[in-house]
Protein 1
Amino acid sequence: MKSLLICLILCATSVIASAQNRTLEQVRFDTARLLFENPDNRAVRFRYAKVSYHTGNYRAAKFHLLELMRTSKAADDLALLKRVHGTVVETAPLSFGLNLSILPSTNISRTSSNQIFDTLAGTFRIVGGGQEESGVGLRFGGRMSYETVLPNDGGTLTYSAALNRNQYPVDRLNSYDGTLSVTWGQHGLRGTTQITPYVFRNFYDQAGPQNADSTRIGVNASYEHYLTDKSSITGTISVENRNYDGLDYLDGPVLSLGASYTGPVFDQSSLGFGIQTTHSKPTRAHLQYTGISLWGEITMPVYGMGTLGLNASLGGRNYDGKFPALTKARQDRFASLGISFSSARIRVWDTIPKLSCQIEQNQSNVALYEYKSKDCALTFVQNF
């Protein structure tokens, strides 16, 4: 009799817990619908973040709390959101991710479009010149992050590690790359600051005297200034030192500065554009350059089916020293046009795949570096 009573109590407890979970999931579903209909309603968004936390959907809770922090207008409100966000982070500090990209290209090796290279020493035939090789590459890997909340200002430290494999039909392109980084982030009423020191290492399957394996140590810093709830300008700076195992003449620092704008345009569409300048100073003078590039992208909904993106970029690089066997320094000009599409209605492995394609062309006064290519990418990213 006693055993039967215990069994009944346990069964009743299980049924009650199950009913509570079903109720919370229903609340989460209903709140998600309300948020979709009223994306600017902060009370609904906070409610959705709260119920996501109580149902164990910590990633969603963090995301929507960060959105609320971005649009906060009062110091007290921001401080409260930081405390709530800190509670979620302490509950679920670890996050993982997997990624897979399928990368078809008409010129996977960026082979020169020219067959002949005229120099002071004579005319030479470029190996493979004018014979672009098409193929499909794969990039896949995983990442892990551990996030902590700083006690005084509510900022965060995120420790991250990532490892990826690059697989191509051309053996010399096959490689692994890994990154270790730490990101300090701080949300303010007017903007968000991030500083990320990192170490990047890549190593190729084929090793030899011309070993292209390299180590890059650098730091990225950015500040996003909020103009409105939906628009912002961002400034970035990146300083990196590159060290190659077998190509010492490529060793040296790289400095990049950038500025960009993102904001709404038209009905439910968004526009982004920016400028970036780069100065690279490897050991050899003829490889040192200063470059500048402009880019722009517009994204828009397509009849409720998904999101369409159109993008373009153009720029150039001017090199310092005269190119070997020529009487001039190298100058490159490049441009690209692209399109992308993703739809929340299409799910694969619990991910929303994104398809993007672009046409790229690089023009150069050094025949070795002129090329054109058509590239696509089908990308899957899973977070958990």
Note: The first helix runs from residue 2 to 37.
Protein 2
Amino acid sequence: MTDPAGPAANTVEVLADARNRSGRSPLEWLAELLPASPGPVIEVSAPPAEVGARVRLRLLDTGETALGEPDALPLPENSAAGVRAVMCLPSVERLDELFAELRRVLRPAGTLVALVPSRPALSVAQLRAWWPLERVFAQRPGRNGCRNGFRNASARDHLGWYLAAADFAVMMDRRQVFQLPASAARDTRALVSGLVKAGVWPPGLTAAQLDAAHSVLSRHIACGRQLPIPLRLLVGRR
């Protein structure tokens, strides 16, 4: 692997202030549930400037990074004991090809851990925050008729099916809601951009959609409400 752009930016950095009921951040939750892998672990994320076209790879023990095509990762066969896909799968094109490549680079019995945004639950707090936002995202139909803006909505809503179809044994499927306090969102325009880059909101939003999302978020935060961030974590074994 090469290192063309320095250390990879953490795709969930914008969520550092978000906490679940146990007081853990999304990364702490991910680390808590991440199975121990006796060997190299590769992190897969989506570069904000090229979302969908390529993926960013980072070797966790060295921080070395590289960019790769979803159907041609620059990694040897059986070179990774684990893969951690962070908030990128719903936004990646050629997802079937990417899963085939992840199987190729994983060692036998290696683990794939995927963190993705989750569909908002039917609770008053989540509906109050997310229903207006979903209407904003639906202004531009996504691929394959999906209207929530993600390129692969099934990788958000039915990721277990994807893993099983790619011949991974699903070992864990957990959901958590993280609360982002209003105090963490003083600059709502920066937060809007950060939520897109973090993969919580879909990529490729138009300027009009970003302005509308900013207005929705500003009104929500102005009422002193926290922003609920529903996330889902799955573990598959090769």
Note: The beta strands are 41-45, 55-59, 65-68, 80-86, 106-117, 169-180, 227-237.
Protein 3
Amino acid sequence: CGWREAQVLYNVLKSQPALVNAVDELNEMFNHNKQRVTVPYLDPDLPHAWPRQSKLTKAVQRVCADDLEAQLVRIDAAAASWFASCRLHGSGAWLHSSPKIALFRVSSQLYRVMLAMRLMVKIPSTDLVARCVCGSTGWQLRYGVHWFSSCRCATLKTARHNAVVKVMAEMSTKIRMQVREGESACWIRGRPDLRPFDLLVRPYDDLSSPWQGYDITVADPTRLGLVPSGSRYFKSGKASSRLVSKKKNNFRRLVQQHGLTHPAEFAALGFEVTGGLGSHASEWLKEVCSQAQELGAGAPERNWTASNFSAYYTQLLSFTTVKLTALSVLNGIRRSIAETLAQA
């Protein structure tokens, strides 16, 4: 580049003790974790040949997170399940959302609950709750875990599910798909009471194609009673994949017993209450975002954190899930406190 001092400074950089020590530590870490990360040997004499810093950082964080998860399993299975779920794609996307966009704007009280849930620390005001309105007690009340999906009286599971489906329907519309609410249609022959689809889509200009139906589920990784035998906790994505497999088996059984009234494809997509996407949901999101890019579809409201379709809707799916889960917690706290005061 014509910079005469470049070679001199380059040689000084390579000889710095801090750099040499850091390279030795990274090489040792990557060598001991070959099965988890694939990073080539870092030659201290050839810094320009190293992988990009983002790749090195990702590899280091992967190893550290795996070690932390292994430690948590020995101490607290619920915390380990929650931590593993927080490692899913999109689980932390809501943290990057900007309140300048109305859909990402909530009260300070609700946002505090969302942050407390993310860190799995005690929820503000739960010290006032001795017993849930449903009668349950225990540590699950202090951390809000009971109201994620376990409570039979105060949880907002249905509202959370429907809110996620609404975002998916909006995304499908943006990529020029016909969208139909599956729960309003009769698809199982002779059993109009059964509703196997939450959402149906097909190309807007192709009326002959069969509908693609989706059954949506939002799993709770803290429900350790549902952990498969032989495991102590839900590994990353296992809570949602368990429900996805269950829904697939149920649909297959229904079709074998009754049949469909109209041709339709079936797919189950799993999300988790941390805001993360299961493997099937991640593949669906990737496909939708790819089509949006081909069509030139952008984010409805752009800012520096949501500059394109993919970033915006990843944040919206994550934010919607976490917000409704936090609302469940607040609803449970308020109803429990009100009942306690009424009985006093």
Note: Strands lie at 177-180, 199-203, 211-219, 264-272.
